[in-house]
């Protein structure tokens, strides 16, 4: 069975809806309009629905319903706490009951995250921030251009930049001339790291935009599927429909408040 015969009517309609929603989101570049709000609400609704289903089948059902069905009466305790969370909704006088499960949730989360964060983030970051110079020398030498500059110099620069950043936020004593130089170096390292993070964020967004453009042009699908779905035709048709709606919406005075503001 080839890709074309494997497609169903729902697949074709889903592809057209995907293209329509993509163009509807991009219509925000023109103005905040009802088409964009429709796509936004659909996205939020689907996200909440998927989240609820995952929570039910991944957490609520195996940890509560299945255990109650097996006769585990201890599961009545979390069930009672779940009911207490909604006490404030049904009665203001019994609203104080919601504080009991909230206190358990906060305490349990803090206890779990205290050790988890310390082991997963703090200790791991400290270990990764102290490179093995002997291993770097044996593998890359002083500086290896073929490995994006890996080597002993990169390891030393990493440790020096980290120490300078930490000393920049040391305010318990007044900074002297030497500390000011170290602090300026720490600020430089921070700006470079922030710039690299921003650059990666922009690259990620551009990558998403390229992926959606390829979807609109049908470049991500096999040729057999393209001949059935006709993504280019869907893009043109949905684009004309959205543009026509925006023109009619603007002629009827839509968006005049935003323009005046």
What can you see in these coordinates?
With 261 residues, the protein is mostly helical. 77% of the residues lie in helices and 0% in strands. The protein has 12 helices and no strands. The longest helix is centred in the last third of the chain and has 41 residues, at 177-217. The protein is extended and about 65 Å long. It starts with a helix and ends with a helix.
Question: Any key phrases for this structure?
Answer:
mainly alpha; extended; 261 residues
In short:
The chain has 261 residues and is an all-alpha fold.
Q: Give the overall pLDDT as a whole number.
A: 87
Helix share, percent? over 70%
Helix- and strand-based class?
Answer: mainly alpha
What is the alpha-carbon Rg in Å? 28 Å
Largest sheet, described in full?
Answer: none
DSSP summary: helix tally = 12
